[in-house]
Amino acid sequence: MYNVNDTIIAVSSGTTPSIKKIIRISGDNTYAILKLLFNAAHCEKKGTDTAYGGQTPRFIRGANDYDLSQSPFFQKQKKITPAAIDIDGFYADCFVYSFVSPHSYTGEDLAEIHICGCDEIVEKLFASILSAGCRTAHAGEFTYRAYINGKVDLSRAEAIAQMIESSNQFQLAAAQKLFGGSIEKKVAQIRKDILELLSLIEAALDFSAEDIEIISRKKAKDAADKILNNLRELLSGSITFEQISQAPTVVIFGAPNAGKSSLVNALIGENRSIVSDLSGTTRDVLEHWLKLENCDCVLLDSAGILTQTDDILQILANEAALRAINDATVLIFCVDASKKDYVEDLGILKQICRGEPACSPIGQTHRSAPTTIFTATKCDLLNNKISAVEDLFKQRFLQTSVKNKTGIDELKKAIEQNILKQTSTSTEQAGKTALTERHRNAVSEAAKNIENAAAEIQNGSEEIAAYVLRSALQNLSKLETEHIDEAILDNIFSRFCIGK
User: Looking at the 3D structure of the chain, how many domains does it have?
Assistant: First the structure.
């Protein structure tokens, strides 16, 4: 694992162009390095900037008033100091956020330098700090030091990683729930119950030669069954982060030349799908990333479906489209509103929906089945009222025109609305606790142990039951700091980006 006895540095802000960049330093030499960089006399020589309200930019190590215990999300800054820096002729103003050990995110002396986003200045400052006596941090090393120094436990470290990776409000809510200790509280009670049962069984074994009943076989069996039920409830009432983190998929489908690819290009804001007046231009399912206001999704442009065909390529295209539709979170059924014959479109709808409520009007959901947004394309060419199309399909249609750029924003809102409803139904409203795969494996193994222990108690084999109960405790202890394998730590913290 990482060396925790030196001082580390990283650019903790993103790599994209921005007005401000953040350089983070943590370790015993943090303040010594800052004093080398921000010499008070040198800064005063540069003058006073009115942007600081007349205060001379300089580095000051202020009083220790940062109290982590009062702020579980680390929101209370210890000291914010305006400063100035001159490196190889590059002069820039900045702010230094300083935190004194142990009242910092890492539990060490820590500082953040907030400076203008000019890459040239950031690179020169970074190089100067490196030469002053520190090294570049590894991925997740700041949070690893927080873990080693007892500022966060492992589950909270995992929760921080999930917060960073969250792409919608429900993933963020699940990560915050894990950060709040939801799993630890439940497991702690279960461990307490196992320990109590184990102590009673072992006491009964110690006094087995005497006429003293510490716990009856029935009570021991009932206690084991209760523990097993609690473990099973924890598993059944949970969902893995791997499941919740899967991006929702939105599939656009319909007949050939229904305007699907043009609609995709309009939604993502660039020409990614091939557009042509020729029918059947798209032969495969094309994947795009669509960023919405409150969530992101994978947008799939499927090939036009023909219900009656002998063309082997079209048959393969149909199969690919159907596979995408079966795995979709939301469906967008496109119909060219300008044409006169809708026999093929009605045939597709009948084949896809098979009378199921999955093909429901906008905003309706049916359990975990994908909702379908009925979308009329090419409405700029529509001669008749849309009501004629809606009467034919017995559905309400959202009208769009790529040419006139109408209905696109409304379609984005409808997509987001349905994604959030689907996500909310499967996770938030069900009240499930999000578990990492590590949590689920440990709890599953413990449940198997308790099931075996209950059987041994029933058979009168209390010694074997006690052994299996200790195995259950050992499996649950895998969730605790002192029993974590180093390879697991490597895997967890390697998921962080540099500077976190």
Answer: 3
